[in-house]
Amino acid sequence: MLGYILRRLLLIIPTLFGIMLINFAIIQAAPGGPIDLIVAQLQGQNVDPTARFSGGGQGETSSQAGNDQSRSARGIDPALLADLNRQFGFDRPAHERFLKMLGDYLRFDFGNSFFRGRPVTELIIEKLPVSISLGVWTTLITYLVSIPLGIRKAVKDGTPFDIWSSTLVSIGYAIPSFLFAVLLIVLFAGGSYFQWFPLRGLTSDDFHRMTWWQQILDYLWHLVLPVTAMVIGSFASLTLLTKNGFVEELGKQYVLTARAKGLAERRVLYGHVFRNAMLIVIAGFPAALLSMLFTGALLIEIIFSLDGLGLLSYEAAINRDYPIIFATLYFFTLVGLLLRLFSDLTYVLVDPRIDFAKVRV
């Protein structure tokens, strides 16, 4: 097992390199860039670019963005363009920028944001609590509800309970999370009826003056609506996946043999069927958690004014803030690969018969 873990950890290095290289190449071909944005502001908008522009980036950006011959750069003082290229790091060839980026990222040095004027690492750490709160609680509640519900549906397959529960989870799946979030606000956050829950932020303004137990309650109070909006559509796929896995296993010979021996139904379900039926559910855990942490909460963050990594990444893409884009990509990919390894190790906990020592990576 230790050898397998070591091989998987070593495999992370070329995987990260390949993902970063592909995305860097795509950025090179993509039109626009931070310099084009600043030039457009100088030419056609009453916007002070210095209010958002801060040089000193790491150079992990598109060479096309620094092209003096771009259409948006016409009529701009060449000396100003040269200075912008130098500050953004576009005065160096693409391969040098890429290698420098990799060297910095190995030390977890993500440079400074182009338009926020702050270290990217500081921004990620600042936004991380929101994304972790939404992702972890949503994933935890989804699994704690969907797995027992799926098992119950498998045992009661074809009964009225199975039918009406499938109807409810299907309706929840059909309603977009952002639409359900708006409905929750209208009903419970002072929209038209009740004002039971707060509308903005992860904590109250006087959070630091509260006692520790008041802080916990305040934190959970703020999470009720956004987490509810996210989990309501997450039950269907996992519930049906669990149910189908158990239904398939319940019809196999070893289950009939276990029942013939007089074992209790609970022992049959959780002692024999569970470890076989849950393997496919466990396989999807890393992707589910990663999606909840970083990509699934963008609209929820906007609706409930929660400033997390999803909103940070979206604004960075809109503003061509490449240090943030590549840093979050690097961070998300690394976390995803580690979660995938954790998923493989969880296989062994569920089914000890699995031996990864014989698996070639």
Give the total of beta strands: 0
CATH fold-level topology of the largest domain: MetI-like fold
| Arithmetic mean pLDDT | 79
Number of helices: 16
What summary fits the major beta sheet? Answer: none
Quickly give the CATH architecture of the largest domain. Orthogonal Bundle
Terminal CA distance reads: 12 Å
Order of helices and strands: HHHHHHHHHHHHHHHH
CATH class of the largest domain: Mainly Alpha
Domain module tally: 2
Instruction: Give the CA-based shape.
Output: globular
Q: Report strand %.
A: under 5%
Overview of this protein structure:
This protein is mostly helical and 361 residues long. The protein has two domains: 20-120, no CATH class; 127-318, Orthogonal Bundle (MetI-like fold), CATH 1.10.3720.10. Helices cover 68% and strands 0% of the residues. The longest helix has 36 residues, at 120-155.
Key features of this structure:
single chain; 361 residues; mainly alpha; 2 domains; 16 helices; 68% helix
Brief synopsis:
This protein is mainly α. The protein is 68% helix and 0% strand.
